[in-house]
Amino acid sequence: MHIDMDAFYASVEQRENPNLKGKPVIIGADPKGGKGRGVVVACSYEARKYGVHSAQPISQAYRLCPDGIYIRPNFELYETVSEDAMAFFRQFSEKLEQISIDEACLDVTEKAKDFDEASALASKIKQTINEKLQVTCSIGVAPNKSVAKVASDFKKPDGLTVVPPERVREFLAPLPVNKISGVGKKSYELLKELGINTIGDLAATHPSRVTEVFGKYGTRLWQVANGIDDEEVVTSYSMKSISSETTFEEDTSDTKQVMDAFTSLINDVHARTLSQNMLFRTVGIKVRFEDFSTYTRAKSHSRYTNEKPIMEQYVRTLFKEFEKSKKKIRLVGVRVSNLKKADANQETILSWADTP
Fold this sequence. Notes:
Blueprint: E1 2-5, H1 8-16, E2 25-28, E3 40-43, H2 45-48, H3 58-64, E4 69-71, H4 75-90, E5 96-100, E6 103-106, H5 115-133, E7 137-141, H6 145-152, E8 160-162, H7 168-172, H8 185-193, H9 199-204, H10 207-214, H11 216-225, E9 241-252, H12 255-275, E10 278-289, E11 294-305, H13 308-319, E12 329-337, E13 340-341
Parallel strand pairs: 2-4, 7-8
Antiparallel strand pairs: 1-6, 1-7, 2-3, 5-6, 9-12, 10-11, 10-12, 10-13
Helix pairs in contact: 4-5, 4-12, 10-11, 12-13
């Protein structure tokens, strides 16, 4: 199962303040009458109807939706609700992989003998989350993680889509190819130039044509299109890293926009690090340029920590290498790794003097 909380941050805010329900809620920087700097962190489905989306400059969101309700993010609250949701999910299966603060994969192979039982289990999960947390989630049930991910997005919000093995190709084939996770605007345009519009088109294309354009990433795309994915659900207890990334709507050379996006990603990764009760030693970034060249850089701290200022400092330091590039940036990501569980009594606040 792939479980995705529906418009999570906005839904939590609407839960806390019922007067916000049914209204365009936009979470992020202060728009300051359309002159604010910063980005949209998240928004409600009502705001999305105006063209607002995450990682969008807050000034653009204000132009699209001036009457929206703009709220500064409360990551501590979202982290608490996420923690509660993951605890409920674990009641249904110990094999849980938290993908982000608002989504997870569950392996229920040992809990359901067939897809009918899995569907019933998914319905029970949805009911439990709605009753206990007053938010909704969408669930995709499939033979593997990548198909389940596509399925969870199929009937949002509050959806349930079950794709048994014999229906995988039939389900995927007619869908637009950008329904595959990771296929953004530019990837979609490049695929269309190859005559690939649907997932079925991609599945029928010789993989060499795709790898010529996308490299190793093309192989992965072709496999997903054919329903091939042997990746196992990795439980939090063997978690190696926590990461988040975002693709810009338009490739950008605006350093301020890039750093605003990094700030949003840091907040997300930090909240998930705390919710998992983890400490990290290594902070990394990913930068993908308009030509799809991708670079990763990492820097390790002298001790384990969970402090956000250290993440912020290291991300700024690592990005300096790419600031003066003449190429526009397509995607950025933040990752913490070299993880360990925090002891209940462990002091984690480190002074700046300890920072190498």
